[in-house]
Amino acid sequence: MKALDIVDVSIGYGEIKAVKGVSLYIEQGEIVTLVGNNGAGKTTIMRAVSGLIKPSAGRISYCGKDVVRMNNQEIVRAGIQMVPEGRQVFPMMSVLENLEMGAFTRSRQEACETLDMVIGLFPRLKERLHQLAGTLSGGEQQMLAIGRALMARPTLLLLDEPSLGLSPILVETIFGLIKQINETGTTVFLVEQNARMALLVSNRGYVLETGSIVASGTSEDLLNSEHVKNAYLGVGQD
User: Fold this and answer.
1) Residues with Cβ < 8 Å from 123, sequence gap 6 or more?
2) What is the pTM of this model?
């Protein structure tokens, strides 16, 4: 069953059309990756799904509900939550306060129950609950950003460049956590420049170039695609 369905969506910034007639879907329980270079329109699509911008044409639905007609709070309540590029934690608030901010749509009891789940998934955060978020390492801040999103108990988690700026060891840790989150039943839509790592954890993928989908298929198919190898995996390049 389709969870997210994006049909013929176009999005513009003034005269510039950043996304041009994009169609893609994600089935419940999948991890689906959107691969592309900087400026391809990946984040723009994520922002449209999360309600931060409105498409000029096309349809976005989640579990049969029209996302475009919803406000941000309705989208969160529908089960969609986004972890933005660059983490964007609240630096002068504690780890615990950041996590609590993610549960603003939940009851106190639900928030407490979810907090136990989140700190179980991220033991580093448990050790730093009363530490200011701005003093955490980059990897710890990424864990906090993901944990904050999970506090809303999303059924669809949007991840925008989760490995950006992290060391190779921390990249592996983050992608391992993404797999764990998915195994709990959460559907994941992943935007990532590290195409190889993203495709290795995904079921399927789409390739976005200058606002248009140019390829799609299973992760294995895309990893074996000559175009993807040459453009995004560093194979065949000098």
Assistant:
1) none
2) 0.92
